[in-house]
Amino acid sequence: MRHGKNRFLIGALAAPLLLYGVFVVSPYAQAFYLAFTDWNGLSGQAGAVGFENFTSLWSDDLFLSALRNNGLMLLVVPLITIVLALFFAAMLTMGRSDQRGGIRGSRAYRIVYFFPQLLSVAILGVLFQFVFTPNNGLLNGVLEAVGLGSFTRSWLAEPAWALPAVMAVMIWAAVGFYVVLFAAAMESIPRDVLEAARLDGAGRLATFRRITLPFVWDTVQVAYVYLGILALDGFALVQIMTVGPGGPNNSTEVIGLTLYRAAFTYGEFGYASAMGVTLFFLTLTLTAVALRATRRERVEVA
Amino acid sequence: MRTKATESLLHVVLLGWAALVTLPLAWAVLSSLKTDAEIFASPWSLPDELRWDNWARAWQEASIGRYLLNTLIVVGGALVLVMLLGALTAYCLARYRFPGNRVIYYTLVAGMLFPVFLALVPLFFVVDQLGMLGTYHGLILVYAAYALPFTVFFLHAFFRGLPTAVAEAAFLDGCSHTSAFFKVMLPMARPGMVSVGIFNFLGLWNQYLLPLVLNPDPDRYVLAQGLAALAVSQGYRSDFSGLFAGLIIAILPVLAAYVLFQRQIRSGLTAGAVR
């Protein structure tokens, strides 16, 4: 009855595993090997250099700026995005404990908020390069229109403002997605729990802190990891939007860009791979720390 | 409980963010219909007449039409490939016991943990050695390979959740393993296929890094890549309006898809995040 099982399995799995092995597993494995060589792509052989690539990373100003900028993005982007998204999601689902259930137009808001999530990073980069353009860009135009003309500046050309501008784009694009995600989580809170809190005389803020937040904490945790990974990237936005690319005084240099340039401009493939390995361990650490840190906090809240 | 005043205040705040989201997009649409002189004169002014020729110029001279076609070919090919292979793999791993099952599953799922940047350098040389740099099929295979982990992960859970009785009945009726999959299990997995299909389509449509490295031939540029190349190249300052038009043309297909399938898209993408 179930004959031919092995033939079916081999026939079904051969192609996907071959594809995955050639284009995903083997490059990742090679990257760990290349990171310990001085390969420049030209010489037939790659010479082993031990940890030299990794030690020179720590005296490479460009890489250190990239590390600092990604670190800053890692602190700012997830935090602001999550706070804004929680705020809007709470507003959209507010009043579920009374009869009307949710604010009017809640669906329409969600449809609009979500849209930026669908735009490619390349499109975001091009669009916001225009928005930040000094002479005829949208941002300076708005500032002048509301009488804040003295705040206009060349956003992407000033070292102090280039990175915040890039981060603003990331936040602009991400908030809506997490509003939808958090609002869905908030809607799954049982109505009688909210009602009981209201009858006990809990105000809006207390209800949010004591009930809503603990209920959606799992989702917030997931959001933190995703946004952290997003903040460790930033390559496409920086490469398209900022001058250089990499910004004035390397103020928007990110690890991905340093890696890309080392590999495909200077041909330092071993060195670039060492950056890739570093990025990998950063991502891994971030995930572990975010999951652990937020878990502890969750116990406190509950 | 809720007063009229607080409700109005809520709407003011919510509308504020909605305006912040739509303003840049609306401004780009407006600019795509103005002349360069009008754009330079004021970011706000309405155009004297709607300059649709900007769009024609972007489509023709700036090759946006060609980039769109390239994108459709590559994304379409990769999508079909990854859905077929992903569903087959997920089904086999979810429904059959065989030695190596867990190893294969975890190796696939681990692919989601690694940053693509780590693979970038060796991947370039793998594709180069296969003679596939700058080819449609090279890009299709790479796209499919990198979309495979999530597809398998998502559909694995889905196939697990389907009742076993149906498949058993199919086997009793003399179905082969292959036809049981294609005729019975795959149709049952349709909701899952749709979700993960939407997720993959958007992910692949928006790819930038992979084509940037693996697709150096300007004739084969995909949309995201071509648009970025236009914006970064020095010559673009001379044709602001054309670039705005190209930008809008690139956004329109996604916007159209969103208007038609907004509910499925939102639930598909958020399901992808929570998993």
Overview of this structure, please?
The complex is a heterodimer of chains A (302) and B (275). Chain A has helices at 5-34, 52-57, 61-92, 106-114, 121-131, 138-145, 159-187, 191-199, 204-231, 235-241, 255-264, 269-301. By secondary structure, chain A is an all-alpha fold. Chain A has one domain (37-301): MetI-like (MetI-like fold). With 275 residues, chain B is an all-alpha fold. Chain B has 2 domains: 4-53, no CATH class; 63-232, MetI-like fold (Orthogonal Bundle), CATH 1.10.3720. Chain B is 77% helix and 0% strand. Chain B contains 13 helices and no strands.
Strand proportion of chain A = under 5%
CATH class assignment of the largest domain in chain B: Mainly Alpha
The interface involving the most residues is between: A-B, 104 and 93 residues
**Name given to the CATH homologous superfamily of chain A:** MetI-like
List key phrases describing it.
heterodimer; A: 302 residues; mainly alpha; MetI-like fold; 70% helix; globular; disordered C terminus; B: 275 residues; 2 domains; 13 helices
